[in-house]
Amino acid sequence: MIRYLTRRLVALVASLGAASLVVFAVIEVIPGDPAAYMLGLNAAPDTLAALRDSMGLNQPLPLRYLGWVGGMATGDFGDSWTYKVPVSDLVADRLTVSLPLAGLALALSTAIALPVGLIAAARRGRATDGAIMAATQLGIAVPNFWFAMLLVSAFALHWRLFPAGGFPGWADPVAGLRALILPAVALALPQAAILARVLRTALIETMAQDYIRTARAKGLSHTQALTRHGLRNALIPVLTILGMQFSFLLAGTIIIENVFSLPGLGRLIFQAITQRDLIVVESVVMILVCAVILVTFLTDLAYATADPRLRRRG
């Protein structure tokens, strides 16, 4: 197990180093001068040069990269060129919206997908299975922002059960949670459809194994064998999808946060791109990359917990 963890940690560090190089290189090759964008077309050359110097844009790229990486390693992401505040403060403030939203969406998608996938696998080939597969195919095909607009029309404008947008903060937890319900559902439905189909396929493959037939021969019903033995052994692909889903939900909320006017990380990235605030874009993208890599690492640990064979191989 120690060797397995060591190998995964080495892979994690190498992935972070490669990702930082890619993120910095991609952001830096974007055309346009942030200083000229901030000052406008009629800025005096000496004023433009002074602003570029204060923003560190005149330094060589290797020095800028090393300074950026070194600052992130110590928790210093620099100051936003637009808001004139530390990027870490901006990110911490926006995470109070994005993290609960992603966590709520993941919990909803899992709560929907697990029973749906179990029912579809238990009734394979029947009308119930066909209806579930048709519904999940629709959930995968329809974009989440379209779901979002339908939810706003039905539950915010027609029935007035939830707010149509905005976020009141966490001073009133009930009001804050109500503001996240509709965007969380809009994010969760497509992910639940994917997870339910993966779980159904994994369960069907697992139920064809010899040990399942042995369990049935000992007197277990199909449902008992499915829930007691099949479910745990079908969790490996499900864990993969769950890890990918949380990463997607955390990093892929730009459209949903703009639809519902939520002050989260997705909206921060959108605003930073339009304002050419590259230090914010670089830092937030790198934070999201770190989140994806860390979730992948935790998923590997979950693999080892669910399947002891991986620990022995490690």
From TrEMBL:
An example Gene Ontology CC term for this record: plasma membrane
Membrane topology according to the record: Multi-pass membrane protein
Keyword list, A-Z: Cell membrane, Membrane, Transmembrane, Transmembrane helix, Transport
Major subcellular site: membrane
Presence of keyword Glycoprotein: no
GO molecular function, a single term: dipeptide transmembrane transporter activity
Transmembrane segments: 101-122, 134-159, 179-199, 234-256, 284-304
InterPro entries: BPD_transp_1_N (IPR045621), MetI-like (IPR000515), MetI-like_sf (IPR035906)
Subcellular localization: Cell membrane
UniProt-listed Gene3D superfamilies: MetI-like
Membrane found in the keyword field: yes
Domain ABC transmembrane type-1 positions: 95-299
PANTHER family: DIPEPTIDE TRANSPORT SYSTEM PERMEASE PROTEIN DPPB-RELATED
Family that this chain belongs to: Belongs to the binding-protein-dependent transport system permease family.
Protein name, as recorded: Peptide ABC transporter
